[in-house]
Specification:
5-stranded mixed beta sheet, 59% helix, 7% strand, single chain, alpha+beta
Length: 366
């Protein structure tokens, strides 16, 4: 259900940073688009302000007009999109650091809503730019990066005979140029990439999901086994929707500290479902909260989870007696209300731990 300003679970006005009431300047012909920053302040910030105050109803037409006006100025879209992404990141950071909001889940949900709104604005800006018929003036055909950008934002659709898997990628210290070349070499020249330092997105051409997974696994092996990826097969969904799902799967895999590999939704089903239901994620964060002030108990739980609930192996890794581990697990049960000595309790605590790490990852990423 779409949140509104009267939703008791999440109030956009209460949770997001206070935004100035700015009346948008006309974004039609002759609009002031001298610099990306000036355009964002005059034409994009008011869209954020109106939406976050009025219940997440985006004026897509106004956003497209901004993209159209930018196209008429004769410049490429990338600098404008970067400026919007910077604004979105700043707003997310403010939401995550609201001192009057002690509930981590509420702050994270506010940040998620702002991020989603920023992505929607990017889509509409790109659409308006494309509708103006403005490819970059220096080239007739869009670059591979530009084609990836158009497809991943929903401003363009693949040809009827072309199918792509969407891959979200975390590449750590790897050079984006090396990652791009490796993908093209092992998955074909039809591969499209949108990469930066630390990762990005790749569109892998493939006849089916299994083939896409195999191709991507070969790439990760060739990159040295340090990269982590999340793959989504469209199955009727748009590539922009798949991108969002792939990003979430990658975040869940990272929060679970899953090994570098190609991860799909089946690998993180429980955590994915919990993260997308605010009531559940907030409840899980409250369950795990008491352990955050108990470093020894937190470490014990994480080691137990890493050993799939085997207390003997956990004791060996912690270099303590088995009875010490048992005592700590009893304390965990007392503090959280869920026993890690039962399958049900361990599963719940594992998911709660993942929700906490995911919240921390989103905070650090912002």
């Amino acid at each position: 259900m779409t949140p509104t300003s009267t939703d008791k679970t999440f109030s956009p006005v209460a949770a997001v940073p206070s935004l100035p009431r700015v009346h948008p300047a006309p974004a039609g012909h002759g609009a002031d688009v001298q610099t990306p920053r000036k355009t964002v302040v005059r034409h994009v910030l008011p869209l954020f302000s109106d939406v976050l105050s009025d219940g997440f109803v985006l004026d897509g037409l106004s956003a497209r007009r901004v993209g159209h006006a930018w196209a008429e100025s004769g410049r490429g879209l990338e600098r404008l999109l970067e400026a919007v992404q910077k604004l979105t990141a700043d707003l997310v950071d403010k939401a995550l650091n609201r001192p009057d909001l002690r509930d981590t889940g509420t702050r994270c949900l506010a940040a998620q809503r702002i991020s989603e709104l920023g992505n929607r604005i990017l889509v509409e800006l790109t659409r308006g730019f494309a509708e103006a018929g403005a490819a970059a003036p220096e080239v007739e055909e869009p670059s591979r990066r530009r084609r990836a950008e158009l497809l991943l934002t929903g401003a363009a659709t693949p040809a009827p005979d072309q199918t792509y898997a969407v891959v979200a990628l975390a590449t750590s210290e790897l050079d984006p140029a090396v990652v791009d070349e490796t993908f093209r070499t092992l998955t074909g020249d039809g591969t499209l990439t949108l990469l930066a330092d630390g990762g990005g997105h790749v569109l892998v051409p493939a006849p089916d999901k299994a083939d896409a997974v195999r191709r991507t696994e070969k790439v990760l092996d060739a990159l040295g086994g340090s990269a982590r990826a999340a793959l989504v097969w469209p199955g009727g969904r748009s590539l922009s929707a798949c991108r969002s799902v792939a990003d979430d799967i990658l975040a869940e895999a990272t929060s679970l500290e899953l090994p570098p590999a190609v991860h799909v939704l089946d690998n993180v089903l429980l955590e994915f479902a919990a993260a997308h239901e605010p009531v559940v994620s907030n409840a899980l964060l409250k369950v795990i909260q008491p352990l955050l002030a108990q470093p020894v108990l937190w470490e014990t739980l994480q080691v137990l989870l890493a050993e799939d609930g085997n207390r003997g192996k956990a004791a060996e890794r912690l270099i303590v007696h088995r009875s010490t581990v048992d005592y700590r697990l009893q304390r965990i049960a007392q503090l959280t209300g869920h026993s890690p000595c039962t399958i049900r309790g361990l599963r719940l605590l594992a998911t709660a731990s993942a929700m906490h790490r995911l919240a921390e990852l989103r905070r650090s990423a912002a």
